[in-house]
Amino acid sequence: MNRNPKNKHLKRIVAPNGWLLDKLSGVWAPRPSPGPHKLRDCLPIIIMLRNRLKYALTAREVKLIVMGRHIRVDGKVRIDTKFPCGFQDVVTINKTGEHFRLVYDVKGRFHLHRIPVDEASWKLLKVKKKALGARGIPFIVTHDGRTIPYPDPNIYVNDTIKYDFVKGKILQVCHFRVGGICMLTAGRNIGRVGTIEKLEKHPGAFDIVHIKDAKGHQFATRKDNLFIIGAGQKSLISLPKTKGIKYTIIEDRDYRLKRHENPIKNQNNRKEVTGGTLIPDKVAALRKQTKEKKRLLKILRAQERKSMKKKPKKKAAKKAAKEEAS
What we know:
Largest sheet: 5 strands, antiparallel
Strand content: 25-35%
Shape: elongated
Number of strands: 19
């Protein structure tokens, strides 16, 4: 008998809303593998490549891409199609030279935010726990399951660290304090960005934090829902196009209508982010040479065909030779 049959599958109807799966494309959804993020707080690689980026049409194609070792999550190659990627994870696609950071939009959905190469070697981590381990070794545990020994003594729970996952070093510490800029990772205001105005302590219950965004809108949430994203008023990470500001339904509709009236072409900033060149110069030169060779070969083949048509056939040539001899 199986340990727990319920834990092996996931029906499409109960999959997280942020995955944006339609109801009629099948019964099942990919169940994320056990990993650094919870099922309701993650986006599997298969959903990312097939449903969001459209680099694959089927699960089999995703499998081929992943087994080709083209996908890196936080600098590590991942060959599991159901590997769970979560908030602040950096996804790199080697073949295209693209880098994405997973953040929330103001509607609570995961957004694959394209980032430049210099931002793709570090991520922000929220400190969930600080303790002493075996033999009195201090360590901290972060929101993505990392255990970092011998941290800076000034790092406390709810602080955010800028962590270089290539070198394995803490680059900067952003403390949880009034006036700090933060993004909400849970609750009704998920994805919104603002500065901390006031902290209310409620012993025996949830501490409440009051936040004000760039437009002057004020809202409140639990302390656990906050994620500090910068030191002071400046954010360390680049934000999606709405900059974490939630618009009303009417404002959102007006913006959409305005965009439809004057559509902007080529909104994809892929070239700008990757430094203007997607393919290295050597590769581009090699491709140009091969293209030219193919073109010349095509011309030569066409000339050969023409010359072959003009030549008389072998049997006809033999008959002509016999007639001449006789």
